[in-house]
């Protein structure tokens, strides 16, 4: 990136600190330009959410060539969620670090760049980032890798289960699933209510009494299905391809 572009990125990141800043780099008629965008994320566990309206506006200004965001108070090293989202965007990503200087004032630090390279997050031990690496994306990834089935994406703001949403029950049929008959089969999707009145957590049944899931704020893991997990289960569904 040109020095002028990097200066604009750092300026925006400092202005939005301590929130994550995000924006886009566009090129029009051979000229590079940084366009600041709004971050619509409302909680710390959400990855930054770049405003769709701002993305559309930038697209009208020229060809989008890079996605930009800041890392407040941490290094510019890409997180697992950054790498996954970079792959989905099919664009290079720039990450600028904002740290506090000796006098306590925020300072724009290094700028790192990553590019799509085919990265896939591991199924076990992945970091949690709502909407990017959460329980539903784990189910999606498992189905894609094990069965070659693409489950649909559903927009889901963080904490939807406490704001009147019931996304799993409303959408499991749209995802091609029906209530499962007994006995449980490998690939069945277990819908649970974790500290919620509605189903807000999903797991994949692996067989032999094991499930794969990604609990809010933890690393994804394989666990024995039973006990508390069985008590929290509201519904078990099966994809139509596995009937």
TrEMBL record:
Domain of life: Bacteria
Ranges where the MPN domain occurs: 1-125
MF terms (GO), sorted A to Z: cysteine-type peptidase activity; metalloexopeptidase activity; zinc ion binding
Keyword list, A-Z: Hydrolase, Metal-binding, Metalloprotease, Protease, Thiol protease, Zinc
Cited PROSITE patterns: MPN, NLPC_P60
Domain NlpC/P60: start-end pairs: 104-240
GO biological process, any: proteolysis
Pfam families registered for this protein in UniProt: NLPC_P60, Prok-JAB
Recorded coiled-coil stretches: none
Family label: Belongs to the peptidase C40 family.
Name assigned to this protein: Peptidase P60
